[in-house]
Amino acid sequence: MSSEGRAPGLLLVLSAPSGAGKTTLAHRLRAEHPDAVFSVSATTRAPRGAEREGVDYHFVSRARFDELVAQGAFAEWADVHGHRYGTLRATVDEALRAGRIALFDIDVQGGEQLRRAYPRDAVTVLVLPPTLDELARRLRGRSTDSDEVIARRLAAARAEVARGLASYEYVVVNEELEVALAALQAIAAHERARRAGRTDAAAAAIAARCLRAVADLRAWAP
Ligand code: ADP
Ligand code: 5GP
């Protein structure tokens, strides 16, 4: 079967400390790219609020999750805060077969695993708020969580960011939403063009400024 003329699929992994704006960015990206799909993970945690089966997650029992692990059904999986989460190989393979951009909202170690499993197709992007103070402000602004919960999230955020800054390919600082969105779109366009053996010079220039090695991360240095 020829895939000539069609954009190649791309596995776009977005990881971020909670409150960085990843959900907002992922939904905007999806709205602007009709061929983008969210990867729906399997999880053993219970649905929260308005979450729906098959839309937000595939909610499964621990026994079913372990069965899927034994079958090799996961491209990657992890234990996060006492619950298991995993990306199904079938989801990844279907997105690649259809030439879609698949968006992954998974943690940094999951992103690292996915990139190892699909080295040619996966791109890892760490989304950061401009500073830790701004992250704390957004967490307070978004929820009714107690100071203690927010302090715990901030500590977890520092660890997640440190890990991502050591291994991810790109860093997008979400200060101005539209600028961050444009950067994500450029990364996707550049990486897709590269995989198709083409060059998208404008996208490549923007993406190059988001490479982890050149991003200005003074606000995150300890
Ligand atoms: P995450 O999915 O990373 O936890 P959300 O997308 O839920 O984060 O965003 C956290 C909060 O920050 C939300 O209230 C959102 O509206 C706000 N937010 C997102 N991006 C920006 C931005 N660039 N500037 C200011 N506030 C933002
Ligand atoms: P939540 O329970 O708040 O939806 O997600 C908790 C954490 O699990 C988030 O950091 C989210 O990115 C991560 N996560 C969700 N799905 C997966 C997955 O399939 N694999 C991995 N490794 N992490 C996931």
Structure write-up:
This protein is an alpha/beta fold. The chain has a domain at 10-39 and 101-216: P-loop containing nucleotide triphosphate hydrolases (Rossmann fold), CATH 3.40.50.300. Helix content is 45%, strand content 19%. It has helices at 22-32, 62-71, 89-97, 108-117, 132-142, 147-167, 177-195, 201-210; strands at 10-15, 36-38, 42-43, 58-59, 74-80, 83-88, 101-105, 122-128, 170-173. Helix 5 crosses helix 6 (147-167) and helix 7 (177-195) crosses helix 8 (201-210). The longest helix has 21 residues, at 147-167. The protein starts with 9 loop residues before the first strand and ends in a 12-residue tail after the last helix. Adenosine-5'-diphosphate (ADP) is lined by residues 16, 18-24, 138, 141-142, 174, 176-177.
What is the topology, as strand order, of the major beta sheet?
Answer: 2-7-1-8-9
CATH topology descriptor of the domain at 10-39 and 101-216: Rossmann fold
Order of helices and strands: EHEEEHEEHEHEHHEHH
CATH architecture of the domain at 10-39 and 101-216: 3-Layer(aba) Sandwich
Helical proportion, percent range? 40-55%
- The first-to-last residue Cα distance is 51 Å
* The CATH C-level class name of the domain at 10-39 and 101-216: Alpha Beta
Uncertain runs are none
CATH superfamily grouping of the domain at 10-39 and 101-216: P-loop containing nucleotide triphosphate hydrolases
